Amino acid sequence: MAAFVGAPKLFICLLFWLNTLSSLQGATDFYEFRYPFIKRASSFLSSSSFSSSNTDEVSYDYIIVGGGTAGCPLAATLSRNFSVLVLERGGVPFSNANVSFLSNFHIALADTSPTSASQPFVSTDGVINARARVLGGGTCINAGFYTRANSDFIKRVKWNARLVNESYPWVERQIIHQPKLAQWQDAFKDGLVDVGVSPYNGFTYDHVYGTKIGGTIFDRFGRRHTAAELLASANPKMLTVLVYATVQRVLFDKTGKRPKAMGVMFKDENGNQHQAFLTNDRRSEVILSCGAIGTPQLLMLSGVGPKAELERLNISMVLHNEFVGKGMADNPMNSVFVPMTRPVEQSLIQTVGITKMGVYIEASSGFGQSQDSIRCHHGILSAEIGQLSTLPPKQRTTEAIEAFIKRKKGIPHEAFKGGFILEKIAMPLSTGHLNLVNTNVDDNPSVTFNYFGHPRDLQRCVNGIRMAAKVIQSDRFTNFAKCDKPTMEKLLNMSVRANINLIPKHTNDTKSLEQFCKDTVITIWHYHGGCHVGKVVNHDHKVLGTRRLRIIDGSTFSESPGTNPQGTVLMMGRYMGVKILRRRLGKVAHV
């Protein structure tokens, strides 16, 4: 009887597995059926000039550069009433198993090939980082945690609270899930409450002090749901999405008092160049949604930025703005390794402790195996994805990463049981800058985040490491880990040796928490800034000193919203789309 009752469940799982397999193997058919407006850039027929008076030429009400976390919901919304062209430099996520499954999270970040969904870069601080290069943007390569911003953030950015509260659910209904809590996350939750990160708020999207379980873009089968899926809400007759379309610059008409965006120049997957133009309507816009690295880079490549920066690379200046590329920030993260005597289920971020001392505490656990890539990993803290948190930033070279991966392949996975407790600084005071290296948009610009440049950030890191240690030393967590309560020095030494001494050693002073913070700083990919409101854009996100040019992405943020920003960036795309439509059409807007 029990076997009979379990049969339907087995059958459903089998159907899901077959559906997943077929959707990956025949992904082209799958996404062309559901998203018929997605095409390769080489299929585009270029317009010949600024003028769109020729009725045979195609022009657009909105051209969105970057089909990422903000760009996809923005495009889906605007297309309900107007023609929209989205230009995305990467490919589609639907056929990429490294993107689609939680178990392959580390592999997507470890893939440094030119067609990877992830493009690595190293800040001048020496911290290895990544930026998305795929339709769906950062939602395709991140750890999946979903939470809303706190109400104070909404007030600071002067957004309409009512529209914000309408826009979050629009996203949540389509791609957000309640996680099945992993044992590691459950023990971590109990440990947080034990040490006073209270109250326990249960499962909630809201940003509230205490311990909570947040949402996730991974469903119960471990499959990722990205911003690209929000395009299913678009009007397919009004939307064109071109993948492998790398925008090289925005085209301006400089004959008026203020330069006016007319369109963009981009290259397709074969290297052929194209131009796409806006309609003649004064309300048509080019909207940059390339992220905190790509947007200030593209703005400068288009001639909008600091005069000296543009002259240095012989870029024709359209508009001098000294603030483009300034105020770059990244929330520094440090971690404490916790070894286990038994295998631990893989989990990314599900539980978070929101403290009142400017620090967030999170956790990841488990190992994964893949015959196609690396043998073992530590989830979000994998050395394979370039973090190498046991090395000081300046020593995290490409050679060190490659040597580590090569030597680690033959190690039995039993050596990698355990997980990490992570602490992240909320609203860091330390900021840096972004500069062009050359005029090739494919190359990363030079980025400095200036981690711990402000002493208060360093002190908050010290407090966060102490809090993380208390969680690990709590009765609830030690009972789960089945180990004696480790001392602070032992915890830090274990963290420094987390990669079992297979990488070149650096002598860390583990008695100095300040030094530990500096030497083991890594990123959780929450960088932002470079095009701040009031300096590069106004409160409607229109680029100051220009016409028909707007920026809608995290480059406009002076702080990362909530514990993890993706929820608010997704919401931002929907919010700004609705706001634009209502201002242009009033009550007749179809949203």
From TrEMBL:
Cystine pairs: 461-517
Query: What cofactor does this protein call for?
Result: FAD
**One GO MF term, please?**
oxidoreductase activity, acting on CH-OH group of donors
Binding positions for FAD? 88-89, 134, 247, 525-526, 554, 565-566
Q: One Pfam annotation, family name?
A: GMC_oxred_C
Superkingdom to which the source organism belongs? Eukaryota
Which residue ranges does the record assign to the Glucose-methanol-choline oxidoreductase N-terminal domain? 291-305
The UniProt record lists the keyword Disulfide bond: yes
Keyword Zinc in record? no
Residues of the signal sequence? 1-26
Coiled-coil zones: none
Q: Which InterPro entries match?
A: FAD/NAD-bd_sf, GMC_Oxidoreductase-Related, GMC_OxRdtase, GMC_OxRdtase_N, GMC_OxRtase_C
For this UniProt record, give its keywords in alphabetical order, as a comma-separated list: Disulfide bond, FAD, Flavoprotein, Signal
The UniProt entry's sequence similarity note says: Belongs to the GMC oxidoreductase family.
The record ties this protein, via PANTHER family, to: OSJNBA0019K04.7 PROTEIN, PROTEIN HOTHEAD
What is the protein name for this chain?
A: Protein HOTHEAD
Lineage here is: Eukaryota, Viridiplantae, Streptophyta, Embryophyta, Tracheophyta
